[in-house]
Design brief:
Helix content: 25-40%
Organism: Lacrimispora xylanisolvens
Keywords: ATP-binding, Nucleotide-binding, Transport
Protein name: Putative ABC transport system ATP-binding protein
Strand content: 25-35%
Number of strands: 10
Shape: globular
Distance between the termini: 84 Å
GO molecular function, one term: ATP binding
Order of helices and strands: HEEEHEEHEHHHEHEHEEH
Number of helices: 9
CATH superfamily of one domain: P-loop containing nucleotide triphosphate hydrolases
Strand order of the largest sheet: 6-7-8-3-9-10
CATH architecture of one domain: 3-Layer(aba) Sandwich
GO cellular component, one term: membrane protein complex
Bound molecules: adenosine-5'-triphosphate, magnesium ion
Radius of gyration: 22 Å
Structural class: alpha/beta
Length: 272
């Protein structure tokens, strides 16, 4: 966290790069003392502003390792991570915190809301760190809760909300400082299938409004909502394919002209 009245460098507050994420020969090794574990092996990856991407792979394949690096919660052991054109490798930790607060909104599997604190105050929190006035915070938090369909629930505590509603609050909180990047590690992992679809429809809506969303999922049905699916195996990026999102596919199917029905003939009908 930076200190009050400290000036945040312009390079952090400006959005400069068409390539929002660029990983160049990025390697992550965990050094546990006795052994070294290779978390990610030479990953090269570019994600452009406005993309909607799913990261998939078996347990232990490196998905969370990747998200921690993309979220500036951890640093690559080798190689480079450029976030919005900024090389994060040698940044002082104060600048990294400022980047996290301004450029990234996080959504977690377990929501990570502050209990005994209203939905409104939870959404206000990142704005408090960004030193936004109380009045402006409240106004924006209310707008965000409305945007995620919880405009009437702003006074509710997390334990008075369903799982899907809690995740909506968490998404509103992630949007608080208008970050160019939303990162979500298994955002539907704790939700039933109906709530999962609602949350994915909300991410699709945010994407259609211009947000860049990168999410981790184990489920093909969830990845089907995105525009691009990247798969990892044993720390290697093994496939990277475009995807027609399910909402668009359904729309196209609805718009397709129906096949004319075959006439039914009964035995004995004259065929001429
Ligand atoms: N802090 C750590 N210390 C040592 N090794 C780690 C650490 N975090 C992850 N690893 C190792 O790095 C590899 C990738 O782990 P990671 O957590 O990224 O997998 P994942 O794809 O997110 O798995 P899951 O689907 O189970 O969440 C694994 O071999 C894991 O054991
Ligand atoms: Mg993980």
């Amino acid at each position: 966290m930076w200190k009050k009245k400290e000036v945040i460098p312009d390079y952090i507050t400006q959005n400069v790069s068409e390539d929002l994420i660029k990983l160049v020969d990025m390697v992550k090794i965990y050094d546990t003392g006795s052994i070294k574990v290779l978390g990610l092996k030479r990953v090269n990856l570019t994600i452009k502003r406005g993309e909607f991407v799913a990261i998939m792979g078996q347990s232990g394949s490196g998905k969370s390792t990747l998200m921690n690096i993309l979220g500036c919660l951890d640093r690559p052991t080798m190689g480079h991570y450029f976030l919005d054109g900024i090389d994060t490798a040698d940044l002082p930790s104060d600048d990294l915190s400022a980047i996290r607060n301004r450029k990234i909104g996080f959504v977690f599997q377990s929501f990570n809301l502050i209990s005994r604190t209203s939905a409104l105050k939870n959404v206000e929190l990142p704005m408090t760190y960004a030193h936004i006035s109380k009045k402006a915070r409240e106004k924006r938090a209310l707008e965000l809760l409305e945007r995620v369909g919880l405009g009437t629930r702003y006074e509710h505590m997390p334990n008075e909300l369903s799982g899907g509603q809690r995740q909506r609050v968490a998404i509103a909180r992630a949007l608080a400082n208008e970050p160019p990047l939303i990162l979500a590690d298994e955002p539907t992992g704790n939700l039933d299938s109906a709530s999962s679809v609602e949350i994915m429809e909300l991410f699709s809506k945010l994407h259609n409004e211009g947000a860049t969303v990168v999410l981790v999922t184990h489920e093909e049905d969830i990845a089907a909502f995105t525009n691009r699916i990247i798969r990892f195996r044993d720390g290697n990026l093994v496939s990277d394919t475009p995807n027609i999102p399910i909402s668009k596919r359904e729309k196209e199917e609805l718009e397709e002209p129906e096949e004319p029905e075959e006439p039914e003939y009964q035995s004995g009908d004259a065929l001429c």
